[in-house]
Each structure stands twice: as structure tokens, then as C-alpha cells.
Design a protein that fits this description.
Number of helices: 4
Distance between the termini: 17 Å
Shape: globular
Mean pLDDT: 95
Order of helices and strands: EHEHEHEH
CATH superfamily: Response regulator
Radius of gyration: 12 Å
CATH class: Alpha Beta
CATH architecture: 3-Layer(aba) Sandwich
Structural class: alpha/beta
CATH topology: Rossmann fold
């Protein structure tokens, strides 16, 4: 799950990046872009978001929070996703 304030801009961009990384790595996964309010009460294996939003939804979502600093940096996203999957 990718989460941003409204679920249409940043989270959609991050979803497309994650989809691309999963395909490149041969990992099956379903990624949903969602807004912060809708994320609360939901669960996912991984929840990718900014640190600021993550701190607001922590405890209200079920899954491993992964903080992304630069949503445009595919290498950062890839490194953090793969690390989270392996741990």
C-alpha cells in the first residue's frame, strides 16, 4: 500500500514506481494507492509513505511501515522495499 495525504498524487506516483520494481525483481504483489484517512484500519504487508504521514497513521494500520524520503528516487524505493521484504 502506498499512502499520501489525498491518495491521488504522490501515492499514485509511488505505486507506479513500486509496480515497476516488483516486475523487475520478479516479485508478485498487488499495490494500492490510498489516502491517509482510508489507510487507517486497513492492512498490508508493506505500507510505503513519508515519515510524517507514517507517524500519523502508526498504530492505526496493520503492516510494516516503510518510510520513503524521496519518492522520485527509484533506487531508494527499491532498496527499502527489498530490505523490508527480506526482514
Amino acid at each position: 500500500m502506498t499512502v499520501c495525504g489525498f491518495g491521488v498524487g504522490t501515492s499514485l506516483l509511488l505505486k507506479m514506481t513500486v509496480d515497476s520494481i516488483l516486475e523487475e525483481e520478479g516479485i508478485n504483489g498487488e499495490v494500492e494507492a490510498i489516502d491517509m484517512t482510508s489507510a487507517c484500519g486497513n492492512s498490508a504487508d508493506l505500507i510505503l509513505t513519508s515519515k510524517e504521514i507514517g507517524e500519523e497513521i502508526e498504530g492505526q494500520v496493520s503492516g510494516k511501515l516503510v518510510y520513503i524520503s524521496n519518492f522520485m528516487d527509484k533506487e531508494e524505493v527499491k532498496e527499502k522495499i527489498l530490505k523490508a521484504i527480506r526482514n
